[in-house]
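C-alpha cells incoming
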C-alpha cells in the first residue's frame, strides 16, 4: 500500500513501469476529514516554508498538436512524480490567504488551475487528482446561454466538448473549486466598462446557478488585464489570475496572480523540473525572452497568438500567426 503524505490517504500501489503510471482501485479515506488532514500536513510543513509558490495552468488534456493541449500521459506522470516527492496541492483561495496575511507558503506546495472548462478536466484530470487527494481550481467560460437546466453542458469551445453541470457538481463534491472566466472569452482590455461587468458578473452568476455556491475567483481571458478590468474584478471576486509567467511571492498582486502555463511543462522531463531547485530559475529564464518579445511587440499584435481569440471573435486586421499564448 502506498501512503499519501499530504492527506493521510491510503491507496493501492502506484505502478510505474517504463515511464507509464497506472492506478489501482480507488483508495479509502481514513477517519479524518480532508480539511483536518490538510491542516495537519500544512502544520508539519510549517517549519519549512517557501518564499514562492507555483500556480500551474492547464487547458485541455489531449494529444492534439495544440498550444492549449497537454498530453494526458505527461500530466499523469508529472502529478505522480510530484506526489512521490511529497508535494501537495493547496486551493487557490488558500494560497491567496497566505498572500494577504504576508505569510510564506508551505514547502513543496503548489496550486493547480485549469482554464476554460474543457471536458477533459473531468475525464482525464479529475480521476488522477482524486487518486492523489489533490485539489484544483477550474475557470469556466460559460457562454451566454441559460445554464439553469440541471444537465446542461457548456457550449463547445475550440472544437472540444466542455463540462456539464452534473460533472461540475461531482467534481465540486470531490474538492475541486470553480472560478469564472467570462461569458465569451473576450480580451477584456478591448471592451468598454459596461461589457467588462457583463462578462464578469454574467459568468459568475451562471456558475453559481450550476453549483449553488459563491464563485470568488476569476481568470482573465488570455491572461490580459488592465487597470480597469482589475478594478472591476475587485468588485466581484477575491482574486484573479493573469498569464504573467512567474511564481507567487510576497510581491504578487491578488488581482494579477502569476502562473506557469503547462506549455512550459509539456514533456515529462520539463514537468520533473518542478521538483528541483532549478525550477524558479527555469521559470525566470523562460520569462526573460517572453518579456522582451512583449516589449518589442506592437500592442495590437499581442493577443492574436491565441487560437481561442480566433475562435471567439473575428480576427483583427493585420493579425499574424504565433507560437505562444496563455489564457
Ligand atoms: Zn481561457
Amino acid at each position: 500500500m502506498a501512503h499519501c503524505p499530504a492527506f493521510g490517504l491510503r491507496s493501492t500501489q502506484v505502478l510505474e513501469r517504463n515511464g507509464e503510471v497506472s492506478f489501482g482501485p480507488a483508495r479509502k479515506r481514513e477517519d479524518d476529514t480532508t480539511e483536518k488532514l490538510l491542516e495537519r500536513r500544512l502544520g508539519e510543513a510549517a517549519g519549512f516554508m517557501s518564499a514562492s509558490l507555483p500556480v500551474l495552468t492547464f487547458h485541455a488534456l489531449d494529444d492534439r498538436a495544440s498550444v492549449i493541449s497537454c498530453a494526458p500521459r505527461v500530466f499523469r506522470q508529472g502529478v505522480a512524480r510530484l506526489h512521490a516527492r511529497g508535494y501537495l496541492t493547496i486551493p487557490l483561495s488558500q494560497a491567496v490567504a497566505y498572500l494577504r496575511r504576508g505569510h510564506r507558503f508551505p514547502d513543496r506546495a503548489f496550486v493547480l488551475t485549469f482554464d476554460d472548462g474543457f471536458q477533459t478536466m473531468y475525464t482525464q484530470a479529475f480521476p488522477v487528482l482524486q487518486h492523489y487527494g489533490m485539489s484544483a481550481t477550474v475557470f469556466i467560460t460559460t457562454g451566454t446561454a441559460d445554464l439553469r437546466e440541471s444537465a446542461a453542458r457548456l457550449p463547445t469551445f475550440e472544437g472540444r466538448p466542455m463540462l456539464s453541470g452534473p460533472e461540475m457538481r461531482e467534481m465540486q463534491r470531490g474538492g475541486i473549486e470553480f472560478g469564472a472566466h467570462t461569458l465569451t472569452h473576450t480580451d477584456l482590455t478591448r471592451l468598454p466598462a459596461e461589457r467588462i461587468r457583463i462578462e464578469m458578473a454574467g459568468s459568475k452568476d451562471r456558475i453559481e446557478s450550476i453549483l449553488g455556491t459563491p464563485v470568488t475567483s476569476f481568470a482573465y481571458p488570455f491572461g490580459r488585464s488592465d487597470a480597469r478590468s482589475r478594478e472591476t474584478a475587485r468588485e466581484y471576486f477575491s482574486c484573479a489570475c493573469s498569464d504573467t509567467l512567474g511564481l507567487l511571492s510576497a510581491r504578487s498582486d491578488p488581482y494579477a496572480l502569476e502562473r506557469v502555463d503547462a506549455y512550459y511543462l509539456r514533456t515529462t522531463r520539463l514537468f520533473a523540473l518542478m521538483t528541483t531547485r532549478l525550477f524558479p530559475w527555469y521559470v525566470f529564464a523562460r520569462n526573460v525572452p517572453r518579456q522582451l518579445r512583449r516589449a518589442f511587440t506592437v500592442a495590437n499584435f499581442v493577443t492574436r497568438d491565441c487560437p481561442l481569440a480566433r475562435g471567439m471573435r473575428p480576427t483583427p486586421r493585420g493579425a499574424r500567426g504565433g507560437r505562444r499564448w496563455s489564457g
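note: Residues 1-32, 301-326 have pLDDT under 50 and may be disordered.
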